[in-house]
Every structure is written in structure tokens, then in C-alpha cells.
Amino acid sequence: MKYLVSNLIIIVAIIGIVNLKCVDKSTIRFKTYKINLDEPAVQRFSEPSYDFKNEIVALVEAQKKLLKIPDQVITLIEFIAAEIDNLFPYPFNEEMKGISKSTGIKLGDVVFANLIYDITAYCTGIIAKQSTGQIIHGRNLDYNFPEYLKNLTYVAQYYRNGSLVFTSAQIAGFIGVLTGHKHSKFTFSINERDQGDWWINLLFAVIDRKASPLSFVTRKVMENATSFEEAVDILSTHDLIAPCYFIVGGVHPDEGAVITRNQFKLVDIWKLNPESIGIEHWYLLETNYDHWLPAPPNDDRRTPGMKAMNATTQERINLNTLMQVMTIDPVCNKDTVYSVVMSAAEESLHGGFQLIVR
Asked: Which PANTHER family match (predicted)?
């Protein structure tokens, strides 16, 4: 009872600072699928792709219509699809072929959908250290097509050799990872870094053979990295097709980092720091702009988020109150597809990974 009252006080305090608009009023019920990494790659996403076939087709058509893709870019996408085995390594090439086969969607459209998500999504991520030292991680995925993506969201549990490797909030038709949880190791999310036209970033998929789509890099990190430090190292050094922010939380006190990247190199690592007098003493908050620069007035989710975190306090932050922070306007907004709160210190199957479709 004391715990519930404490959380209620925090929620009231947050509402007093920022209107609570984006509440959990969705009737959408997401599914959970097991992705077996021991299966042939072409088969791994067959079940969710088939189940969400109509929704995937609707999204692809909306993207084509609303993004007003230049003819030159369409030609480039068709080239990428024709050269998929040369441009994308296994298993990603075969997995995209499998999605195309399961849905009947042209391979070029599947490739485009997988490249466009991680270079156009704009999001909010928070890493926080509780007073106990446990690290928790909040994440909102915002995107231009929320009405479509909400109907495509599911939980993916990736298995290898019969054991759970990691859990992700997944979009049907998409094989990369934008939000992930690896128990006793680390949590991860990715935010767009608002620099450059998306179609110019797309060219890096062809021009720089060492560069990889962001969410393909993060998928391999989620599969293979075994510690917070290893994940941060890979995400800091791998060539990418677009600038971004990687947000990583660990299992030990002060294992929290926002990694600012361009295509070729590390720009900055912002870490939790118990010696600091700034917010990084106990939390980090990243939207889509470099943290050392002011947020633009027309898209300032940072200031309301910080006000809500400061009102919550380190002593009272937990997965429930962090979800309340992720729910305030404009941290959560009309383009928010889903919110996730998670902690690598807790098993995803037992409360360590919580998803709300907005």
C-alpha cells in the first residue's frame, strides 16, 4: 500500500508539471513470437510476416505515397534489391527474401522498408540509475506512420539452442532491432540523429560496403555481445549508413551511455557519472539532438522530460514511474508508436521488459 501511494504522489507531481495526454488507452493487443536463430534464415520471420501480411502491404503503400520518393531513389532501391546478396550479408539477405516470399511483397519494397525505419524514426530514450544502483531504461518510438506501425508491433523473443538470447519490440516486416533487452547483460535503443536527408544516407548502403544499416548492426550486437562494455565498443566503432544515437544500459551501477555517432566515427559518449552535479549524476535523456546543444523550440521533448524526471527523483524512480515519464506530453505524442521500460537486471519474461502500444 505504501508503494502504491508513493507512486501515486509521483504521478500527481508529474501531471502538475506537464499535461498527461498520451495515456495507455489503446485497445491494441500485441502478439509474442519466437524467432528461432537455429532455423534457416529464410524461414525465421515467416510466421509474423504471414500473420501481418495485410498490414505490411498497407504500410508499404503508405510509405510510397506519403514519402514522395524521387525516381532516382526508386531506381537505387531496385538496384539494391537485385544485388541483395552482394550488398547485405547473411542472414539479413535471406531473411528479407523470406519476408518477401511470405507476404508476396516485392523484394525491393521489403529492402526499402528495412532501410527506412532506422534512418527516419525519431524517438526519446532515458537511462536512469535507481537509488539501489539498478539501471532502468525507457524508450518511446516515434515515427511518421504511427497508425500503421501500431498495428504491426509485436514482441520478438530470439532463441538459440533452445535458450532465450534477447527480447525486442519488433515491427512486422522488419528484421533489425530498434529496442532490445538482454537479460543480465544490457538493454538497448536507437534514436535518429537529425542530420542529412534520408535518401542521401541510403546511398551509404551502396557506396560504403563496410557500412551497415543501423538496426542490422544492433541486431548482431543483441545476438552476440556479452556485456555492456562490449556493446558500447561495437556501437562506437562500426561503420554506419546514417548518423544516430545509441542508448545502452547495463546491469552494474553507472553502466549507462548515450553514444553519438556519424557514419564513420564516434562523436561523443555521454555516460552516467556519480561525481557529476548535472543530470548524468543519475540519469541521461536523449531525443534526436546533440545533448550539448539546445533542443529546438519546435521539438523540445528534452525539457519536459527532464522536468518530469527531476520531479520523480532518483529515490522514487522505478519501471512504473519511468513509464509515467515516457507518457507525458510531448515526450509521448501523436507520432508515438510504442513505449518500453526495461531493465537488464530483470528477466524479460518476468517484468524486465514492458511494452505499451500507444
From this structure: ACID AMIDASE, N-ACYLETHANOLAMINE-HYDROLYZING ACID AMIDASE
Q: Which domain holds residue 195?
A: 24-29+151-303+342-357
Residue 224 belongs to a domain with what CATH number? Answer: 3.60.60.20
Task: Please state, in angstroms and rounded to a whole number, the distance separating the CA atoms of residues 189 and 305.
Answer: 17
* CA of residue 76 relative to chain centroid, distance: 26
User: How many angstroms separate the CA atoms of 308 and 306, rounded?
Assistant: 5
Distance CA 197, CA 242 (A): 10
| Of the candidates 349, 343, 356, 340, the residue with the CA atom closest to the CA atom of residue 179 | 340
CB atoms within 10 A of CB 346: 19
**pTM for this predicted structure:** 0.91
Structural domains counted in the chain: 1
Q: How many CB atoms lie within 10 A of CB 61?
A: 13
d(CA 220, CA 218): 5
Q: Pick from 227, 218, 230: which is nearest to 179 by CA?
A: 218
C-alpha cell at 91: 542472414
- Domain membership flag for residue 194: yes
Residues 67-111 have pLDDT tens digits of 777 777 778 778 888 888 988 899 999 999 999 999 999 998 898
What are the strands, taking DSSP E only, across the chain?
A: 31-36, 122-129, 135-142, 153-160, 163-171, 179-182, 186-192, 244-249, 256-261, 266-271, 283-286, 336-342, 353-357
Q: What are phi and psi of 114, to 5 degrees?
A: -75, -30
Q: Which residues are catalytic?
A: 123
Q: Which amino acid is at 209?
A: R
Residue labelled with grid coordinates 529464410: 42
Sheet with 256-261, side-by-side order of all strands: 31-36, 153-160, 163-171, 179-182, 186-192, 244-249, 256-261, 266-271
Q: Are 188 and 248 in contact (CB under 8 A)?
A: yes
Question: What gap in Å lies between CA 112 and CA 201, rounded to an integer?
Answer: 12
- Predicted pLDDT at 120: 65
